[in-house]
């Protein structure tokens, strides 16, 4: 039962919720810490932010077309084309002709992209393990739920 001064729970999130603002701040701080030094590694190919978004989308949606990728990451087609050209030039992405429709192509990450991604994820794992050395099983469950919550709209937005 709620007290007369308490606010009943609502399904709508308050955009001014201080917890959400703190979460955003923590995510930005953590992202900077995770990126620090990652591009100086010999086993990581330096990419622009747009290239990272495109490569992540293609990796998670094998055989994606340029149109579906542009829509999926929220880019204009011209910006996507520039990112794809950059990724192809860096050996991170291939453009494969559609055997059923010669006008269409599908995008695929290369082995080099997968190796670079593995190196980045290993770096992130080491950084997070150092920042969170005493995680309990309960803490891990909370983090797993948070990851699911934060990733649930990944298919529809960058």
From TrEMBL:
Family matches, as Gene3D superfamilies: Winged helix-like DNA-binding domain superfamily/Winged helix DNA-binding domain
Superkingdom as given in the UniProt entry: Bacteria
InterPro entries found in the cross-reference section: HTH-type_Bedaq_tolerance, HTH_MarR-typ, WH-like_DNA-bd_sf, WH_DNA-bd_sf
Domain named HTH marR-type: residues: 20-152
GO MF annotation list: DNA-binding transcription factor activity
Protein name listed in UniProt: MarR family transcriptional regulator
């Amino acid at each position: 039962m709620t007290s007369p001064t308490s606010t009943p729970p609502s399904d709508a999130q308050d955009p001014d919720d201080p917890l959400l603002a703190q979460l955003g701040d923590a995510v930005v701080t953590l992202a900077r810490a995770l990126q620090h030094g990652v591009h100086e590694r010999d086993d990581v190919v330096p990419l622009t932010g747009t290239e990272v978004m495109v490569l992540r989308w293609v990796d998670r949606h094998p055989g994606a077309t340029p149109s579906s990728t542009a829509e999926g990451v929220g880019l204009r087609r011209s910006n996507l084309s520039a990112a794809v050209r950059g990724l192809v030039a860096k050996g991170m992405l291939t453009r494969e002709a559609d055997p059923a429709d010669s006008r269409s192509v599908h995008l695929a990450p290369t082995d080099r992209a997968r190796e670079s991604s593995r190196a980045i994820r290993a770096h992130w794992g080491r950084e997070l393990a150092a920042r969170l050395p005493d995680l309990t099983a309960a803490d891990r469950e909370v983090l797993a739920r948070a990851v699911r919550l934060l990733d649930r709209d990944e298919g529809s937005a960058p």
